[in-house]
């Protein structure tokens, strides 16, 4: 019953990983590299928190004890809320990237990350409110939550793609904190 939830979560994780996997060449200006360093230095620990939270959800997808599923998912949603809030703060604190429409891209990305944080806080509250004594109602609640996760990950995708496009994406790719960890398990197959 928890597989749909895990599948939906992988979309949100892919969104964050997309931020960390920009490609580009080594040309770039110092101001943009400095901006990217400010963001990327804060990014990797938050991405790891999101990955860990999503892996904990995957770890209980075959769990029969509704209470254990509820506790695990609730903790994971809180971890995701905290991580997305920290990512939003990192982008906000870095200021606007020194590129055309940088301020708009930054504001949109911060809003998208903060919206994700708030949405995961809301999901945690909903998860905490599910009736673990009635397996059918619990399964129905999980299904509804899974559907909402899918919607919120696609909603924020556009602003984040815009932030990581062009020169900004290239500058982020040059930063160690924004490089994809080759040893990290892929969440897209969870």
From TrEMBL:
Residues 163-190 are annotated as: Disordered. This is Small secreted protein. It comes from Streptomyces stramineus. The lineage of its organism: Bacteria, Bacillati, Actinomycetota, Actinomycetes, Kitasatosporales.
């Amino acid at each position: 019953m928890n597989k749909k939830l895990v599948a939906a979560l992988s979309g949100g994780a892919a969104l964050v990983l997309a931020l960390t996997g920009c490609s580009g060449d080594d040309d770039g200006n110092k101001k943009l590299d400095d901006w990217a360093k400010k963001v990327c230095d804060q990014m990797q620990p938050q991405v790891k928190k999101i990955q860990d939270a999503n892996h904990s959800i995957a770890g209980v997808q075959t769990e029969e004890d509704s209470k254990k599923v509820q506790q695990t998912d609730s903790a994971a949603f809180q971890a995701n809320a905290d991580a997305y809030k920290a990512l939003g703060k990192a982008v906000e604190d870095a200021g606007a990237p020194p590129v055309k429409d940088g301020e708009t891209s930054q504001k949109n990305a911060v809003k998208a990350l903060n919206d994700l944080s708030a949405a995961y806080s809301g999901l945690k509250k909903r998860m905490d409110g599910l009736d673990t004594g009635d397996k059918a109602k619990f399964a129905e609640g999980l299904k509804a939550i899974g559907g909402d996760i899918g919607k919120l990950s696609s909603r924020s995708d556009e602003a984040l793609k815009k932030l990581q496009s062009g020169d900004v994406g290239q500058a982020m790719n040059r930063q160690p904190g924004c490089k994809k960890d080759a040893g990290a398990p892929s969440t897209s197959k969870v």
